[in-house]
């Protein structure tokens, strides 16, 4: 989220200021088109950040659910967050594994805390099958 905010700041503040400072390099039409595209990108970044923040806020107020789930598969998509396919009482769902909890193995059962709106699970302890 902080990376997105940094990119948002760079694109909405720093880049337009550098374009405005170099007036002799750019004409008015190019400047307007560039600023429009940057504002559009900034709006999309704000929209995505707001949606993620809204989902996290809903989870904070609603709380988490505890359950015992079996990990069916695990895919490493990012450096800090993996996607796991879990079986929760014959209901198969896809969640993101919270960063820092990487000691989860396929085919084992875990007691987890599930954040439904954000689709994040946090493993607490390994349980018996």
Question: Can you describe this structure in just a few lines?
Answer:
By secondary structure, the chain is of the alpha+beta class.
Would you write up a description of this structure?
- This protein is α+β, with helices and mostly antiparallel strands.
- 43% of the residues lie in helices and 30% in strands.
- It has two helices and five strands; from the N terminus they run ααβββββ.
- It has helices spanning 2-21, 28-62; strands at 65-76, 82-87, 92-97, 109-115, 120-127.
- A five-stranded mixed β-barrel has the order 1-2-3-5-4.
- Strand 2 (82-87) and strand 3 form a beta hairpin.
- Helix 1 runs antiparallel to helix 2 (28-62).
- The radius of gyration is 21 Å and the shape is elongated.
- It starts with a helix and ends with a strand.
- The model has no long low-confidence stretch (mean pLDDT 81).
């Amino acid at each position: 989220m902080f990376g997105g905010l940094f990119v948002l700041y760079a694109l909405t503040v720093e880049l337009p200021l550098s374009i405005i400072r170099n007036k002799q390099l750019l004409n008015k039409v190019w400047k307007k088109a560039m600023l429009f595209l940057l504002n559009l990108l900034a709006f999309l970044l704000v929209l995505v950040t707001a949606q993620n923040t809204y989902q996290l806020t809903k989870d904070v107020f609603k709380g988490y659910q505890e359950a015992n789930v079996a990990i069916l598969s695990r895919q490493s998509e990012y450096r800090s967050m993996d996607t796991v396919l879990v079986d929760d009482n014959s209901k198969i769902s896809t969640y993101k594994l919270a960063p820092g909890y990487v000691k989860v193995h396929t085919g084992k059962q875990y007691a987890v805390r599930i954040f439904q709106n954000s689709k994040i699970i946090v493993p607490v302890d390994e349980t018996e099958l």
